[in-house]
Amino acid sequence: MLKRLWLWLGSLLGKLFLLVAIIGLGGWGIGSAYYHWKFSGPVSSEEQIPADEAALTRSIIEDAIRVVEQHRDNTRVLRDAHAKAHGCVKAQLTVSPSLAPELQHGVFSEPGKTWQAWMRLSNGNAYPQFDRARDARGMAIKLLDVPGEKLSKSPQHAAEQDFVMFNHPAFFVRDVAEYKSNFAAQADGKKALAFFPSWNPESWEIRHLVIALKTLAPAPESPVATTYNSIAPFKLGPLNIKYRVIPDPQACPSYSLPAQNQDLPNFLRNALYQQLSLDRIPACFALQVQRQNPEYYMPVEDPSIEWDESISPFETVARIQLPAQDFDSREQNLLCDNLSFNPWHSLPEHRPIGGINRLRKAVYEAVSTYRLERNQQ
Fold it and tell me: Which of 240, 298, 335, 359 is most exposed, with the fewest beta carbons within 10 Å of its own?
């Protein structure tokens, strides 16, 4: 009797497992087919601005100021994101001598030219935390003494060209409306609800949650040992492109970073200091662009979509070198804290495009002005 019961239970569980597997595989197949259909070209190569974007942007600025105030320390107002810097270091960007003519626009218009620059390397969180915590990582580059009229009308940034990048190729929201909902939940301390705005499963953003979790990556061994992406698209003359910066150790003297104590709160700054200041070894990168092919699903307005590299491979447009230097001084750290990076500090040939970039213009300017005024800079 007991034997028959166990056999019956085993048979039932086996059938239930098979049924669940069939349903799971069927759901995966339907989901794959749906996303293949939904994320297929062609797409527009032009910007499409929603009617409510300006109102949403004003609301996001209010939330950003609220986050800044939540995370201020005793003496200074911090950035609303990427508050913790590993260092601001001097850099040199050299345009590729053999750059293709169709890519020779803006600061890349003169092959072989070298620009002096600042580079800020950072964690992504709005509050400084231990480097070993899973987090986004950021790279911001500011080219100096760049002639020509800029998109930003601020005299303070009239000679600058900025590039702002992160350590993941896709963003965790698709547009300004979703950013408003997501950011408001985080500002209210409800991070778990940021991707589940209501009880309606149709409003859930599971794919974007996965992107966010991937963005919160373990720390690299050094800030110069990971890849950074623009995520959102930009103009390069008449082209629509995305940027990325990849490590290029072959362009620098051979170097092996000594093992770092990752239990230290600032081991990424220590790694940068070890290489540039103690061992006096430069770090090298390649700056690359990826062209939009609008015949395929490479949208301008949705930065949560990674453009397919097999369709449009990245092309190197410049080399970046961080020379050996001393950067970890009180004066330079204060300078770093007061530097403002904004992709709209830009020549028209590099104009940011897409909703998230339009949002950046307003939010970055508002938060930067607020922060510097509160810090009496």
Answer: 335
Residue 126 near residue 71, CB atoms below 8 Å: yes
> What is the C-alpha separation between 364 and 77, in angstroms, rounded?
14
As a whole number of Å, the CA-based R_g of the chain is 23
Surface-to-core class of residue 318, CB atoms within 10 Å of its CB (0-12 exposed, 13-18 middle, 19+ buried): buried
**Dist. CA 31–CA 92, nearest whole Å:** 46
Give a yes or no: residue 3 inside a domain: no
Buried b (16+ CB within 10 A) or exposed e, 170-201: bbbbbbbebbbbbbbbebeeeeeebbbeeeee
User: pLDDT digit string (tens) for 263-315?
Assistant: 899 999 999 999 999 999 999 999 999 999 999 999 999 999 999 999 999 99
pLDDT of residue 238 exceeding 90, the answer is: yes
288 C-beta neighbours (distance < 10 Å), count: 20
User: Contact, 261 vs 7, CB < 8 A?
Assistant: no
Structural domain containing residue 65: 39-374
- pLDDT tens for each residue of 178-188: 888 887 777 67
How is residue 41 written in tokens?
A: 């070209």
- Indicate the pTM of the whole model: 0.85
Q: What is the CATH number of the domain that holds 240?
A: 2.40.180.10
Residue 122: CB partners within 8 Å, gap ≥ 6?
A: 82, 83, 84, 85, 86, 137, 138, 139, 140
* 151 lies in some domain: yes
Report the number of distinct structural domains present in the chain.
1
Per-residue pLDDT of 304-340, as tens digits, reads 999 999 999 999 999 999 999 999 888 888 888 788 8
Q: Does 81 fall in a domain?
A: yes
